[in-house]
Amino acid sequence: MNFDINNFSKRIICESAVTDTEVETVVDGNKLDLYVTATNDKVKFIELEWDFESGDGIYVMGDAWERSYGELEFKKLADNERVMPWYFIATDKTQCFCFGVKTQPNAFISFRYTADGIKALVDCRNGSHGVELGGRKLHVATFVYKKYSSADIFANLHDYCKTLCDNPVLPKERVYGGNNWYYAYGKSSYGEIVTDTKVQAELAKGIDNKPFEVIDDCWQINSCEGPWLPNEKFGDMKKLADEIRANGARPGIWVRLLHNRDSSITDDMRLERGGKKKYLDPTHPAVKEFIRADIERIKSWGYELLKHDFTTFDIFGGWGSQLDAKVDDTEVWGFSDNTKTNAEIVLDLYRLIKDAAGDMYIIGCNTVSHLCAGLVEINRKGNDTSGREWNPTRENGVNTLAFRLAQNEAFYMCDADCVGILGDYIPWNKNRQWLHVLSYSNTPLFVSCTDNLTDEQRQDLAEAYRVNQEYHTIKPVDIFENRTPSIWEIDGETVEYNWE
């Protein structure tokens, strides 16, 4: 796998003819820093291409823009036409080659790797327009490649991910406990949360590190949108946070910061799509102050964890699975501030949330993976599991855990989502396997359940919480044959699951 990072061609794409755009690269060993400057041009894309000869029998896997959606897998190079956001790993099962960009780049960057070589598409746009840099020199990204002579795919990818993120922020202790979404699905109350808290405290009995009780979408006036004030079923949110603590858990809460029907929000504070103005424009100064005030109010109530959701969907108008190489190409739109790239705007939003949250733990949900690294303690890494159906847990949860676990503690803590327990919808012999692998995975462990648990479930959950506090060695094994690996190596032992 001979690769010269300095041997590439480039092409600049602007809204019109390229007149004053300059692209600069600085190579230092296995790294390449990319810069762009333009005064009058509106820069849209930079294309980079490396000629790269590969041998036979190469398998390739990339990452996802935000959450994954059960689609991650190794594919043979000959069959690989995928857009691979942020980075990829290529292997012939005896050695590995990794190539990508460091976290918090100032552009959305994806790769294509085929028998013809490697192509990177650097998306510098603002909305769907070219960005107006106004003479500003933008450090776009740092590209990094690394070769490994070992065949240990998981260890190699974990090491590579650590080289991509210089500043991960990690919780001081394991984050685990209850989240009410996968049994309540938006219908809950103050009293039910208190009951849930008591269940979590009982399951975690004897563990010094207290569990969380995270109140998901259900507590606010409007379903799945602001204003971020309590509805009549919840009332005093500060009192509830105090009661959660008094009953042996730590309070957490869910918000969707860019979807808000507060009457003081004017149309100019919203993004326009399809002739409608719905979601908040994160570049508008008044929106920034609104978001800060929302978070500071929630923090003043005493919540110790903030789960913010939907930022990718609300900004770009689609889920990560719907975003191709160009992230968004469905309509003409832009932000009130047209001088920054889409990536810079998302980074500014995440930095604002982090700053306002202070010492609260942050879970990013529907957050752009490479951009939130270093700005969230925990990232919800995959599409929803379920308390009602087994397939979403198998397809989304297991796939996410297997193929993005290498990012855990390298970028942030990886949350592959909850164990949803809702009566007899999902047989316990299925859910308890998901609980088991999560408990050994060194990742956050959240469970959605009421107090309607069997003795067996209580015993299994208590044991899982205990196991989750300890460090374990773990990796999926049958990663070339299976999107939902059933064979795992845990603490040196082979464990086989039946996900079907």
Tell me what you see in this structure.
This protein has 500 residues and is of the alpha/beta class. The protein has two domains: 8-164, no CATH class; 176-496, Alpha-Beta Barrel (TIM Barrel). The chain contains eleven helices and 28 strands. Helix 5 runs parallel beside helix 7 (342-357), helix 9 (390-404) runs parallel beside helix 10 and helix 10 runs parallel beside helix 11. The two termini are 37 Å apart.
Quick overview of this protein structure:
With 500 residues, this protein is an alpha/beta fold. The protein contains 11 helices and 28 strands. Strand 18 and strand 19 form a beta hairpin.
CATH superfamily of the largest domain: Aldolase class I
Mean pLDDT: 96
Lateral arrangement of strands in the main beta sheet: 23-22-21-20-17-14-13-25-24
Largest sheet: 9 strands, parallel
* SS-derived structural category: alpha/beta
Rg on CA atoms, Å: 23 Å
The first-to-last residue Cα distance is: 37 Å
Number of strands: 28
**CATH class annotation of the largest domain:** Alpha Beta
Q: State the share of residues found in helices, binned by percent.
A: 10-25%
